User: Which sequence fits this backbone?
C-alpha cells in the first residue's frame, strides 16, 4: 500500500478527502506518532490516528441473494434454530432485507449495507416483488378481480396490483408494498388458504439459475442496476417491511 494520506482517510469512510485535509491542517492527524503534513503518504502497517483515535477500516459491502427453502426463519436471532444467518453461515455479519414467512420460499436479499436496505424497504419507492402462489381450492374470476383491486386488511386497503391466474389453483402476483403476511391475509379475506408461496423476483433480480437452498453474491452489473434503481429513493419515513 502506498497512497496519499487524505485518500487513505476518506477510504475508511471517516470523511471526505477535503475534510481529511482540514483535519491534517489543524494538526489533528498523526502518522506513526508524528504530526501529519498535507501530501504525506501512507504505507502498509503505518498507524494513522485522528484526535488520538485509530481509524476504523470501512467494511466492504456484501450483497447476497438466497433461494430460501421452507422452514428457514428470516431472523438474526441465533436462538432460533431455523434462523437464516446460521443457514447461510457467511463469514461476516449480514442481515436479511425484509422477510419471507417461515413456510414461504424463494428470493431474499442479505447484506451489511443499511442504506440500501432502507431504500429498498421504503413503501413509497414502489419496488416490485413477484410471487407465484398456490391455493387450497380453485381460483375464480371474482377472486382475481378482488385481489387486483384491493383487499381491506390491517386497517387499510391493499394497493391495486398485477394478478394473473396460471392454473386451476395457482396465480402470479406483483406487489409494490409489503404489509405483514400480505398475500396470505388477502387470500384469507376471500376464504382461500395459501398452500405454497414462492417469491420469484425482487426488482431486477430473479431466481433464475439459483437452486432451492443455494445463495450467491450479486454480480457487479446487478449491484450497479439496483443502486441506479434506488438512487433517488428516500431512506426515511413511510417504511414497510418487504414481507409477503
Assistant:
Amino acid at each position: 500500500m502506498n497512497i496519499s494520506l487524505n485518500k487513505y482517510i476518506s477510504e475508511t469512510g471517516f470523511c471526505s478527502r477535503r475534510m481529511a485535509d482540514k483535519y491534517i491542517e489543524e494538526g489533528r492527524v498523526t502518522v506513526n506518532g508524528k504530526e501529519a503534513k498535507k501530501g504525506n503518504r501512507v504505507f502498509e502497517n503505518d498507524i494513522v490516528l485522528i484526535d488520538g483515535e485509530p481509524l476504523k477500516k470501512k467494511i466492504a459491502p456484501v450483497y447476497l441473494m438466497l433461494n430460501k427453502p421452507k422452514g428457514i426463519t428470516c431472523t438474526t436471532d441465533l436462538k432460533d434454530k431455523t434462523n437464516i444467518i446460521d443457514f447461510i453461515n457467511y463469514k461476516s455479519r449480514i442481515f436479511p432485507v425484509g422477510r419471507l414467512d417461515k413456510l414461504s420460499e424463494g428470493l431474499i436479499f442479505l447484506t451489511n449495507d443499511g442504506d440500501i436496505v432502507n431504500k429498498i424497504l421504503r413503501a413509497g419507492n414502489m419496488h416490485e416483488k413477484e410471487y407465484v402462489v398456490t391455493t387450497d381450492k380453485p381460483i375464480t374470476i371474482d377472486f382475481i378481480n378482488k385481489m387486483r383491486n384491493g383487499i381491506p386488511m390491517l386497517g387499510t386497503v391493499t394497493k391495486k396490483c398485477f394478478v394473473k391466474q396460471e392454473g386451476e389453483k395457482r396465480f402470479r402476483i406483483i406487489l409494490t408494498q409489503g404489509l405483514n403476511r400480505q398475500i396470505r391475509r388477502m387470500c384469507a379475506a376471500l376464504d382461500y388458504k395459501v398452500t405454497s408461496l414462492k417469491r420469484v423476483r425482487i426488482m431486477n433480480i430473479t431466481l433464475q439459475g439459483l437452486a432451492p437452498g443455494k445463495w450467491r453474491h450479486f454480480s457487479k452489473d446487478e449491484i450497479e442496476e439496483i443502486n441506479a434503481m434506488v438512487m433517488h429513493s428516500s431512506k426515511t419515513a413511510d417504511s414497510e417491511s418487504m414481507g409477503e
